[in-house]
Amino acid sequence: MRADARRTRRGGVQGPALRAVLAAVLAGVLAALVLAGCVRLPDSGDVTVPDDVPDGVGDAGVDYVPPGPTPGETPDEIVQHFLGAMRATSLQTSVARSFLTDATADAWSPEQRTIVYEDASRPTSGTTVSVDLQGSASLDDRGQWVGEPSGADRTITFGMTQEDGEWRIATLPNALIVPLTWLEARYQRADLYFLDPSSRILVPTPVFVPSGEQLASRLVDALLEGPPDSLTGVVTTALGGTGPGTTVEVSSSGLASIRTTGADGAPEALTEPMVAQLAWTLRQVPSVVRIRVLVDDVALRVPDGGTDFAVGAGQRYTPDVAGADAALYGVEGDQVVEVDGAATTPVAGTEELLGAGVQRIAVDLFGTRVAAQVADGSVVVLPLDDPAAPTTRIPAEGTARLSWDFAGRLWIVDGGERARLRVVSSGTVTPLDAPDLSGQRVTSMTVSHDGSRLVAVVGLPGTQRVVVSRVRYDERGGVADVVEPAQDLAVDAAGLAVLDVGWRSATEVVVLARIDDTLVQVQRVPVDGSPGDGDGTTLLMSDADRLVTSTSPGTPLLLVGPLLVEEYDGSRLVASEASAAGLTYPG
Q1: Origin, by domain of life (predicted)?
Q2: In this structure, are residues 139 and 145 in contact, taking their beta carbons and an 8 Å threshold?
Q3: Strands 114-116 and 137-139, bridge-based pairing
């Protein structure tokens, strides 16, 4: 396994199966988006790759117009050619519908979900035709990654009947079913920006969208649709729904005009959160420079009194947390210090920890509080900005994993082999039950700055999983619960010991795994569970057992070993001057 791991990961390239799934995902997303007219994708389906589809189909610049059914085709041929019709580069389903009965063609809704696959069996023959899918995955109607489909979706069944003397498909899933070999060049990752339940920070939701002239329209349509019901309490939106005939026009000067007709409850002006959501979502479109919203051809006012705003607006809602501290901290003896190269400066307000036997620390995102686990096992929280504020002491068992979010909530996972999760807010400690985390062995844990996602490494070495859970809040902004089930991230580390995980952006984590005594693997992993880019995995000669990460631009990724701290810039590993123990960035 380790030798195989070295071969598949060497040079920073992921295994072919993972790349295949990504290509399939992208293909599924594109077709579904075209069908739905917005950022939508199906999430269940079936597919086989016909032998008679010309080589090169799906490659950028190669057009393919599939043929319709021919007289006398058998049921398995009808299904095989129907699946081949999904590969039309014109991105339409009219040919595919010609393989269905008239009634089924009218009722079929492939925009509801998408199934993508790595390989597929040939269709069976008979009045019921089935196709087995291998390496399949699914996306929902917005383009969000859902993950592996259920067992029923891995084998797709088509009910066949004769109509006017010819075999046609009478029953099939309401799904687009597409192979993995095409459209990778046509799709890109993007984010829809919603808000946390308190509307104080943006929370990105990754989606797959097709590139091109319609990118702005597709992003706006999906954003105005709002978050799915499954994320109620996790995220919210300040924007209303799409009005009839909502369009987005981008002028040659880069002004994106979002036009809609007046709907019930349409705003008379845009609020700051509305501006932030639109600006952050549309800044992903290279041609867009400014934005305006028109209802019944009347431009809505924005907070500064104008009628349009720059795509750079809304910075105070940034997922990286406006005003966040980017310093590096550590421990010398029992003294918490700020680290700048080889120099260290004691942090005022942490003198209480002297003699306590500090084992690890976590600094909040604004550098105003420090949480430290000390020799007696407890976690001590010290306020640095208010000397009169009380110190909080929380009992803990075993090694505690500590993480802060933007709202000043401290997340603690402790309990040794049977982990427990607690959150500390305003001095109140609240226990939480987290599916796939509570009661398990947890090697590492970290919470996103926006407080919406909790990522953890769970399980025994060699069989570990890296999982992400979503956090739900009540109407007062208090932590309500952890949404179940947790989702597995696409970590390419089978049989390896996963050591640590940390945030590198609001939608991407870095995972550290050990291959042998001198070799580690560093992998960038999207937090939605989808496969990452092909160059996201790198092997490094290092004995590191811990990561130190930050989402702040320009901060180096640190690999910490028993004797050496190293900086990794994405291409090379160099020794760091930092020598303090317990190194950490805020968060």
Answers
A1: Bacteria
A2: yes
A3: antiparallel
pTM of the model: 0.85
* One-letter amino acid of 512: L
Report the C-alpha gap between 376 and 94 in whole angstroms: 70
**End-to-end CA distance of the chain, in Å?**
35
β-partners of residue 469 are 454
3-state helix, strand, coil in the chain (%, to 5): 15, 35, 50
Instruction: Concatenate the DSSP letters of all residues of 500-513 into one string.
Output: EEEEEETTEEEEEE
Give the residue from 387, 385, 329, 386 showing the smallest Cα distance to 358.
Answer: 329
pLDDT in tens, 500-549: 999 999 999 999 999 999 999 999 999 999 887 767 899 999 999 999 99
Q: 421 in helix, strand or coil?
A: strand
From CA 447, how far away is CA 555, in angstroms rounded? 19
Strand 369-373 versus strand 379-383 pairing type: antiparallel
Q: Judge contact between 489 and 504, C-beta under 8 A.
A: no
Q: Which two tokens stand for residue 325?
A: 């501290």
- Map residue 549 onto helix, strand or coil: coil
Q: At what angle do helices 215-225 and 272-282 cross, to 10 degrees?
A: 140
| Token duo for residue 404 | 């802060």
Predicted confidence (pLDDT) per residue in 166-175, tens digit: 999 999 999 8
Query: Which token pair is 382?
Result: 């010290």
Give the pLDDT confidence score for residue 28 in this predicted structure: 40
